[in-house]
Write a structure and sequence with these properties.
binds pyridoxal-5'-phosphate, 35% helix, 360 residues, single chain, Aspartate Aminotransferase, domain 1, 14 strands, 3-stranded antiparallel β-sheet, Aspartate Aminotransferase, domain 2, alpha/beta, 2 domains
Amino acid sequence: MARVYNFSAGPAVLPEPVLKQAARELVEYKDAGMSVMEMSHRSKAFDEIIRQADVLLRELMNIPANYKVLFLQGGASSQFSMVPLNLFSNSTKVDLVHTGTWTRKAMEEIKRYGTVNLIASSEDKNFSYIPKLDRSAFSADAAYFYICSNNTIEGTRYTSFPDTGRVPLVADMSSNILSEVMDVTKFGVIFAGAQKNIGPAGLTIVIVREDLVGRAMEITPVMFNYAIHAENKSLYNTPPTYGIYVAMLVFEWMKELGGVPAMQKINEEKAKLLYDCIDNSSLFKSPIAREDRSLMNVPFTATTKDLEAKFIKDTKGVGLVQLEGHRSVGGMRASIYNAMPVEGVKKLVGFMKKFESENK
Ligand SMILES: Cc1ncc(COP(=O)(O)O)c(C=O)c1O
């Protein structure tokens, strides 16, 4: 069977050249005589892989030297706990903007150890927009200010980030890291599960400003302490070695493509193709405020539930898969991460037009 166009929200499509290179190197990696999966995480060959992944990510995101890059496990969900455990020292209050499922989960964890000062929420309109922020509501004494930069389920993203002054800005970038140019220096902590724009599930990337490392709460489990992982260069215990290797290949692929600015251009082109199709349709509709629409996750609906079911069934027949909306919101969702080729989006748009003409 040929490869399909996979619009999954995560784990998600990976660049085909990366998969092919991983396949070529699966049994024997370079002159190591073994697979990366079989290699000690303390070996010279693996050390080169993790160092190279670090160097490439720093280059791609322009990460300054005073930030640590950690290659961890536990998914983005572990960061919902790790961030408060590591950043609550003088203050246990968090300013938070509530924009959907993933900020709710983060909020639940924060409340185990501290309090949330809700700066704004878009719950009143089903999380279909990013709220405008009133600076006078920001707390000068918050431990950090928390946002989710791209809301994977709801399909919104920040197009600019709040200026939080001396309070560190913390962002869950799981679903739009490396998709557009962002200024890392605006953030205290950035974290992301790898399984969307970076590599296989099981690897979690944390980018943390040095001054925020080393002040974890007493109760912090050793595996949840940023300082332990930073001191040990992500090798305190066995890291997700194969995931780090694939991430390195993805970073190489992105660099060859022209880095994040080139990726952003392609992502904007793909998103425009899809949103234009939806906006010019009388059958499909986007529930999301135009100015806040995600470049990565595009939820849309059809005029009836029956047509939505038919659309999902028919798309599968032509090799366009995983277009079901999240179980909590229904409808459809096309996730068009970095590795989704423009051709995949063109094929989807072509199919949507045909479907509309046949189902008026
Ligand atoms: C924005 C966002 N945050 C957090 C998560 C949870 O990630 P994980 O499954 O790696 O814990 C997801 C997963 O889809 C996500 O999209």
